[in-house]
Amino acid sequence: METEPAEFPEELADALVRIQRLIRRRLRGGLAGPRLRGAEVELLRLVEGRPGVRVSDAARALHLAGNSVSTLVNRLVREGYLVRETDPADRRAARLLLTGAAEKRLGDWRRRRAELVGRHVARLGPADREALRAALPALRELAVTLHEEADET
Fold this sequence. Notes:
Helix content: 55-70%
Distance between the termini: 26 Å
Shape: globular
Order of helices and strands: HHEHHEEHH
Strand order of the largest sheet: 1-3-2
Number of strands: 3
Structural class: mainly alpha
């Protein structure tokens, strides 16, 4: 296995964080309704992909403490983005579902994010666009291995 220059992991992490931060800042400007924090959006996206997920399972999936997720759930229920219902299999547990408002908000966010990134990717030269396209499988695999390591701890 070939070793990477010592700077590469740090440069990669910095670039990814900077891109994510800039996207988040740019998208905040046109938001309708209250601003959602990153963990709240992550929770909504998780519930979107796993309707009816239990709060405890959401906490595990997000690598957050149960009480932290409960706080997020309470806020998102108050804001009208989540519905908490009793789990028929275990009356002590709550299952989470998105509201129509959350579905609309996530759809709008996804559309605006795709437009923003698409505009900036289009400004790159063909070789850079192709390099980004070619890097996607490796970036996805990096995300998988980071997630797997987080599951082990």
